Every structure is written in structure tokens, then in C-alpha cells.
Inverse folding.
């Protein structure tokens, strides 16, 4: 796996000058993932969302690699078409048989956990040689901070409001990474923009496998999380240290924790700096706060259990 | 003219054979009645190694069209097939395929849309997608379904057009009935459609990276893109005519955007799309025996709609009936009626036109029903008033 010095010599395939917000986790996620391609030509697909609209404002493009956007829910299906064309044109002799190319699809949590889940599942089941990357910022940020199934329990969102009758999102977040692991594809991992070495190593592995791979990358959204633009990495790190976002990989069915957290901090430390959780610290919402911690513990135990049984 | 063999087979088999002969690089498809036997037949060709096609067995029609978009943008010749609810599920991506100017060819087995659920033929599926920017061809027979599929490839990929083409055939009537059809040899079709050379840089051309499907929403040229799409559709008129003429030289079968029967001296005419044209001709022929000057106009190309040609054909008619196999609730009549009346608007003399909604959800189109239509027309030609508003032909 590459060290930091080696990584700095690799070309960024996402050019600066895009119009994502300052401190956006998505662009960091894309850059770090793309560093893992390792010099092989790569075609990128993207679901409708912040990343896509901010990087492809016609007639400009921030992508220094071939890029396709189709719609919100179908980046996995679209890229599976691109990859199929590559295979077919090779078979027809129109592309040299030894030519190597990689294919990657990006989607936010809305386009991945929710509306795009079917297309993602189909593409993974069919075994296309592609990497699917979800940049998880826990809401429909492009549409204005509406809840997704990745939104954490207790978080405020514009469709999971805070009031007398409800304290933010009622339901716990969907465990998409486990769902993808259940597809029994060669490589699945959960990573965070705060842990660049772990993330780039996982991206390298994902691109190296023949067949489908899935990366779920924690990518804070300063605007939606009500944090300062220079706190992105700090908050992402707290998500890992509190066990809210365990870093693990599932390689050929074997679960492994890639970053050990020896003394897990209380989840409060991750929640407190964020405006979207501020209501949880009022006395009347103590129970919700306890429920959030219990949910984090449950999920942590689940991952640790899977790792121990592997 | 090329060698041809005569087969007794179904429209779906003929479409699958045409697709095999056109050798798509990628086929992405999902089965749906009554299209299913197309994708099954094609799967057999793949299994037998008779095509080099990468067959993407997607999990939905939405993903079928999405994968087609990806593959086409990557520079592949791409095909798919669908029907009814499947076409409806694709609707979002149909716009994207045409907006990105991707020459995808799709067969659509016309079938009613729910609710109530129904698997039989009508044109509500395709008419629901008529404004998605696709060229739309219709077949009356298995033969036409085969011919249209082959011509569709040339029309879609023509550098002046670069639009997706939908080739429609009537569910069960044309898709499943055994019909007589003539098939060209593989080499002739291969030579006719030619090797696909993408007009522009593709996604797989890494040396010239392109961005497909970018964002033109902040005062960007979205409006101008749509105008360019309209212009491409207009240019397709000439291409469709030329490809049709070339195909006639190859196959001996003439292709017209409109096909006229008895129109040289007709007083009254029926305008119809698809398999019912045969019934209409049969009745018109009978009526000719009794001295009624009956004609039939079959619309084989619905988008772009041949307004000028239709107006020239119907000019001077004493009465015209439009047979619509789809509804347009709240409109003056069905989709074909609206087009026909629009085509006639600029004529000096107003031609009386009546709309008949028929055969929804596969309701039988018996010859007596067509006779009723011609009876109405004969009455109108003799000075009687036609039916008030549209007629639900044969509805109980």
C-alpha cells in the first residue's frame, strides 16, 4: 500500500475549481478513492447529487477522466453498461484484448441506500468488474437536508424535524455495508475521509479485485451537519473513535477491523459539535440520546462479532 | 435484391433474428409479457455463440435503459426490448437517452398499461412515451417488425440523426401469432447496417476524456440542447426516407412513413396504426366491391409525424376516420386523432374527421366494427352528420 509521499505523486483525477462547498467530504472521498486506481485508465459514473451538479457545470468539467451522469438512482446500472461495452468491444476485436480499464460509480447515501439500492444490488449480483462508492453524508444534501435511510437516529433533517412530538429522525440508520457484504462480492469496505491511509488502501484493494467491489465512505457535510467548514475531518475522526462508524472490510467473506478503536469514546463526543444533534442535549431528550448510544453499541457489537467469527 | 428465405414464425422471433443480424455489442434487457420471447430468443443466440453481444440481464427495465445509456455512451451498438409497464418504468431514462443523443434501438411490444392490469395489445404504453424524443416506427406484421428493426439501426446511427429509435409491434397479435415472413441472409444485413462507428469521442476513449450528462441548469444552454434535439428529429425525416428506399432495393419491400391503400380515388378513408390496418384493408376491399370508394392510410412512422404527406393524402376526402388504440383523457380524442387533425388544419377545405377509440386492452377488433366505421363515413360523405365526439368502438 502506498505511503503519503507516494500518494502525493499520483494525479488527482478530480480537478480543483469545482463548485462543491468548502469542507465538503464528498470531494475528499472522490480524490482519495481515485488515488487507489493506480494509473490504470478509469471511467467514472455518478448519480445525480451534489457531487455531480457541482463538478460538471456545462461547459466545464472537473473530471480529468471520462465521466458519465445518467440519473439519480442508476449510476450502478449505467456503469455496468459501460463495463459491458468494454467487454463486448474487446470480444469484437475493436479494443485490444490486453487493454485494461477500471470502472467506478459514485453515489451519495440518497442515491445508494434508498432510490438506487435496487440498481446497485443488481449490478453487484451480476458481477460487473466495477467499484461502487457511496459517499455517505447522512441525508439528501443536494435537495436541502432531507432525511435518508442513512440519516442517524436522532438527527435533525428537514423531513425529520424537531418539535414537541418528535426529536429528529425516529429510526436507526440502515446498515448498507452489511447488506452489500451479504451479496458475497469479492470486496466490501467501510472507510472514512478522516483515515486517508485506510481509505486509499481500501480503494486500491477495491480496484484490484476482478469483479464488483463496494466502498461506503463516511463524508461529512458541513452545511447539513451544521458544523464549520474546517471541522470535516475532525468530526469524521470522532465518528470512528466513538464507534459510530467502524472501519472494517469484508474480503472474500472474511470480516476484519482495519482500524482498531481501543477505548471507544461516548457517541456524545461525535454528536455534540454538530448543530443537527443539538436538541438531543436538552433534558427532555435524554432518552433519545441514550437510545442513540445503545444503537451505536449494538452496531459496534455486531461488527466486532462478525470479525471474531471470521 | 438479396436472397431471402420464407419462414412461418412470430413477430418476436423475427425481431430477435433482426437484432442478431445487426449484431449489437450490448443488449440490456428485462423480460416482460408479451416482449419476453424476444429476449429469450436472443439469450439463445448468445448461448449458442452466434453473436458477440454482451447480454446484461438487468434487474429492471429502468436499469435496462440505464445500462443501454452507459453502453451507448461507451461507443457500443446497443439494443433492448420492452413492453407496457416496462416502458413506463423506463420513461425517465428514455428522455436521457435521446437528450444524450444516443442511437439505441429498442423493440416495444405494445401492451396496455395498468390499472386494471391487462397483458394484451393497445398503444397506451408507446403513446405515453411519445414526447420522449425517440423516433417511433410501427409494424403491422412480423415482416414489418423485422424490417423496421433493421432500418432502425441505420436511422439511429446516422450522423445527422443520432437519436434512439423505438420499433413497435402489437402485443400477441404481431408478437406471438405465426405469420409468413421473409428473412434476409446474415451477410446482406451486416452489409446494410455496417460497422458502428460512434460519431464522437466515447467514454472508453481515455486519451480524449469526455463528460456525458453534465449539468446545464444554471442559466446554461439547456434550452438550446432541446432545440438541437428537435432539429435532429426534423433531419431524421429525410434519413428515414432514404434508408427506406435503400432497404427496398435490398429486400424488394417498399417502406413508407405512411402506406396508402386505395387512396388514389378514395372518398372516405380510415387512418390506423399497426396490426388493425389489415382488418381495415380487408373491409375496404369488400366495400370497393359494392362501389364504395374506401381507402386506408397506415401510419408506419409516428415520430417524426408525416404531417405534410398525410395532408396531401387526405386532401379532398369527404370523411376520414381515425382509429386510436390509446386514450388521451381530457383531450379531443386519442393521440393519433390529434396528429391527424393538426395535419389537416392548413388545408383550404376542412375535411371532416371522426375519432374512434378501439381495442383497448386487447378488446377484439372484429370486421363488423370496422364496417360500422365505414358506414359512418359513407353517411357523412352523403351529407349526414357524423357521430358526436369520439366513439368507443364496440365498447359494451
Amino acid at each position: 500500500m502506498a505511503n503519503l509521499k507516494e500518494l502525493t505523486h499520483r494525479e488527482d483525477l478530480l480537478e480543483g475549481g469545482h463548485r462543491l462547498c468548502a469542507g465538503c467530504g464528498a470531494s475528499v472521498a472522490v480524490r482519495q478513492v481515485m488515488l487507489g486506481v493506480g494509473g490504470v485508465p478509469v471511467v467514472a459514473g455518478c448519480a445525480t447529487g451534489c457531487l455531480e451538479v457541482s463538478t460538471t457545470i456545462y461547459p466545464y468539467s472537473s473530471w480529468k477522466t471520462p465521466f458519465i451522469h445518467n440519473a439519480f438512482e442508476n449510476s450502478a446500472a449505467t456503469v455496468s453498461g459501460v463495463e459491458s461495452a468494454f467487454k463486448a468491444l474487446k470480444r469484437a476485436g475493436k479494443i485490444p484484448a490486453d487493454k485494461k480499464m477500471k470502472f467506478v460509480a459514485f453515489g451519495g447515501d440518497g442515491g445508494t441506500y434508498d432510490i438506487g439500492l435496487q440498481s446497485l444490488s443488481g449490478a453487484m449480483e451480476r458481477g460487473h468488474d466495477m467499484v461502487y462508492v457511496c459517499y455517505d453524508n447522512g441525508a439528501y444534501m443536494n435537495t436541502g437536508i432531507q432525511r435518508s435511510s442513512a440519516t442517524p437516529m436522532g438527527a435533525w433533517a428537514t423531513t425529520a424535524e424537531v418539535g414537541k412530538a418528535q426529536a429528529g429522525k425516529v429510526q436507526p440508520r440502515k446498515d448498507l455495508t452489511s447488506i452489500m457484504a451479504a451479496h458475497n462480492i469479492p470486496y466490501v469496505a467501510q472507510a472514512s475521509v478522516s483515515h486517508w491511509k485506510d481509505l486509499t488502501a481500501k480503494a486500491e484493494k477495491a480496484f484490484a479485485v476482478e469483479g464488483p467491489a463496494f466502498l461506503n465512505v463516511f463524508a461529512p457535510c458541513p452545511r447539513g451537519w451544521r458544523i464549520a467548514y474546517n471541522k470535516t475531518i475532525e468530526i469524521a475522526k470522532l465518528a470512528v473513535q466513538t464507534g459510530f462508524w467502524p472501519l472494517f472490510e469484508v474480503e472474500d467473506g472474511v470480516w476484519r477491523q482495519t482500524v482498531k478503536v481501543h477505548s471507544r469514546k461516548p457517541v456524545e463526543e461525535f454528536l455534540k459539535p454538530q448543530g443537527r444533534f443539538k436538541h438531543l442535549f436538552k433534558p427532555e431528550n435524554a432518552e433519545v440520546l441514550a437510545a442513540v448510544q445503545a444503537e451505536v453499541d449494538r452496531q459496534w457489537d455486531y461488527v466486532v462479532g462478525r470479525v471474531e467469527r471470521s | 435484391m438479396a436472397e431471402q428465405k420464407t419462414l412461418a414464425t412470430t413477430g418476436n422471433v423475427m425481431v430477435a433474428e433482426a437484432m442478431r443480424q445487426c449484431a449489437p455489442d450490448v443488449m440490456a434487457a428485462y423480460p416482460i409479457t408479451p416482449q419476453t420471447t424476444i429476449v429469450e430468443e436472443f439469450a439463445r443466440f448468445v448461448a449458442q455463440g452466434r453473436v458477440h453481444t454482451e447480454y446484461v440481464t438487468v434487474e429492471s427495465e429502468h436499469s435496462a435503459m440505464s445500462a443501454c445509456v452507459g453502453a451507448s455512451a461507451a461507443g457500443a451498438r446497443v439494443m433492448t426490448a420492452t413492453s407496457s409497464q416496462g416502458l413506463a418504468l423506463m420513461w425517465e431514462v428514455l428522455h436521457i437517452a435521446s437528450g444524450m443523443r444516443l442511437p439505441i434501438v429498442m423493440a416495444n411490444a405494445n401492451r396496455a398499461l395498468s390499472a386494471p392490469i391487462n397483458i394484451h395489445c393497445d398503444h397506451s404504453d408507446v403513446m405515453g412515451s411519445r414526447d420522449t424524443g425517440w423516433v417511433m416506427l410501427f409494424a403491422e406484421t412480423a415482416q414489418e417488425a423485422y424490417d423496421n428493426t433493421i432500418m432502425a439501426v441505420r436511422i439511429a446511427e446516422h450522423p445527422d440523426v443520432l437519436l434512439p429509435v423505438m420499433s413497435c409491434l402489437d402485443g400477441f397479435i404481431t408478437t406471438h401469432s405465426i405469420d409468413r415472413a421473409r428473412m434476409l441472409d446474415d451477410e446482406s444485413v451486416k452489409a446494410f447496417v455496417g460497422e458502428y462507428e460512434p460519431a464522437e469521442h466515447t467514454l472508453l476513449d481515455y486519451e480524449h476524456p469526455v463528460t456525458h450528462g453534465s449539468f446545464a441548469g444554471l442559466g446554461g444552454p439547456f434550452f438550446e440542447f432541446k432545440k438541437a434535439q428537435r432539429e435532429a428529429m426534423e433531419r431524421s425525416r429525410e434519413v428515414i426516407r432514404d434508408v427506406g428506399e435503400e432497404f427496398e432495393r435490398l429486400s424488394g419491400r417498399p417502406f413508407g412513413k405512411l402506406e396508402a391503400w386505395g387512396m388514389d380515388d378514395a372518398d372516405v378513408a380510415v387512418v390506423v396504426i399497426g396490426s388493425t390496418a389489415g382488418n381495415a384493408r380487408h373491409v375496404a376491399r369488400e366495400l370497393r366491391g359494392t362501389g364504395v370508394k374506401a381507402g386506408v392510410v397506415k401510419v408506419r412512422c409516428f415520430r417524426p409525424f408525416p404531417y405534410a404527406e398525410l395532408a396531401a393524402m387526405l386532401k379532398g376526402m369527404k370523411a376520414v376516420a381515425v382509429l386510436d388504440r390509446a386514450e388521451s383523457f381530457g383531450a379531443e380524442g386519442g393521440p393519433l386523432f390529434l396528429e391527424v387533425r393538426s395535419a389537416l388544419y392548413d388545408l383550404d377545405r376542412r375535411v371532416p374527421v371522426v375519432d374512434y377509440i378501439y381495442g383497448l386492452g386487447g378488446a377484439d377488433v372484429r370486421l363488423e366494427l370496422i364496417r360500422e366505421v365505414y358506414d359512418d363515413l359513407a353517411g357523412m360523405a352523403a351529407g349526414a352528420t357524423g357521430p358526436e365526439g369520439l366513439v368507443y368502438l364496440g365498447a359494451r
